[in-house]
Design goal:
There is one protein chain. The chain is an alpha/beta fold. Helices cover 25% and strands 24% of the residues. The chain has two domains: 9-207, TIM Barrel (Alpha-Beta Barrel), CATH 3.20.20.10; 223-342, Beta Barrel (Lyase, Ornithine Decarboxylase, Chain A, domain 1), CATH 2.40.37. The protein contains nine helices and 19 strands. It is elongated.
């Protein structure tokens, strides 16, 4: 393949060790959305036994991971096939009393007990239980079924923007957590990743972005995206480049074609904005990004077909150009059709 994502294993493991030290607790590494575009199977392989828990958003991601690892897996979205999850030791979220009844009904013929993590809606207003009364009802129901909760958790919505709101969420979570029977050995966990750096106590912290090298100055980027030059064209002054005459040459120029496009997760909004590197030199995209390719101005660069092109190694360079976040830049790579290599 002409295009590839290179994953730095040393950086990943250094990030994990740093975050573990900061947390003073277990980590659940989020590998949902194909590990934020990095590649969930590759990241899981690189992590090995350095973490005990992996987090995903649906059972299909979980089933895929279960084929390659015996690590503990938690599904944080709603599932459909709770029976298969239970049979494969896949843990999952519990959102309400009615949800608890559904899960127990669907897993009654399983060989094992379902491993449920009770989601507390402390202010995110996305999923979970928000009333103490309902929480007590769930606990009582599960006690009668002799099925303890594997975990209880919440998610902070505004860690970096609203300290008071975050404190309020934490106090609500503590109130709910205090209801859990002592003999259940239920783990208490918090997310997102920045919660590691706050004054919070938990058995486990869920981390995603930080593991991949973002949001903290002490972590290093894990991913870099590369391609190569597959063609070079001589373009005369006044000629157009790409679909819809997206760029018009103001002078004679040399244009290289890179086989990567919006079909691979490279946003079309980057047209005429993206800067890549060839032999350490900057080269700017010209013309509208195509589904499978884009073109760059190499008029002042000595280059040849086959030369490596660094698309980016820091999503923060791309995000402002598409008026979005690093999260979107990286998860767009779920569509990436090249190879993923571990360095």
């Amino acid at each position: 393949m002409f295009s590839k994502i290179i994953l730095n294993k040393e950086n990943l493991l250094n990030n994990v060790n740093y975050l573990k030290e900061k947390a003073g607790a277990e980590l659940c590494v989020m590998v949902k959305a194909n590990a934020y575009g990095h590649g969930s199977r590759e990241i899981t392989e690189m992590l090995g036994d350095n973490v005990n828990y992996l987090g995903v958003s649906n059972e299909y991601e979980a089933f895929d991971l279960r084929e390659m690892t015996d690590r503990k897996i938690i599904v944080f979205g709603r599932c459909q096939d709770y029976f298969s999850c239970t049979q494969q030791n896949i843990e999952f979220s519990l959102f309400s009393f009615d949800h608890a009844k559904e899960i127990i009904s669907k897993t009654k013929n399983a060989d094992k007990k379902p491993l449920m993590h009770l989601c507390i809606n402390s202010g995110m207003n996305r999923y979970g239980v928000r009333e103490i009364k309902e929480c007590k009802k769930i606990i009582s129901f599960l006690q009668k079924k002799e099925i303890p909760l594997a975990g209880i958790y919440t998610h902070f919505s505004s860690l970096t923007t609203d300290e008071e709101y975050t404190k309020k969420q934490y106090q609500i979570f503590k109130e709910f957590s205090s209801l859990i029977p002592k003999d259940w050995q239920t783990i208490k966990h918090l997310g997102g990743g920045k919660s590691i750096f706050g004054q919070f106590s938990a058995d486990m912290f869920r981390v995603g972005f930080e593991v991949y090298g973002y949001s903290d100055e002490n972590v290093n980027k894990v991913l870099s995206a590369h391609s190569q030059i597959v063609d070079i064209q001589s373009v005369k002054k006044g000629e157009h480049i790409g679909y819809l005459c997206g760029y018009t040459a103001t002078e004679d120029m040399k244009v290289a074609t890179i086989p990567l496009g919006y079909g691979d997760g490279l946003p079309r909004k980057l047209s005429n904005k993206l800067q890549v590197k060839i032999k350490g030199q900057n080269a700017k995209s010209v013309g509208n990004i195509c589904m499978d390719a884009f073109m760059i101005d190499v008029s002042k660069i000595k280059c040849n077909i086959g030369d490596d092109v660094l698309i980016f190694n820091d999503a923060r360079q791309i995000a402002p150009l598409i008026e979005s976040t690093e999260y979107e830049v990286l998860t767009n790579l779920c569509k990436f059709r090249g190879t993923r290599e571990i360095k």
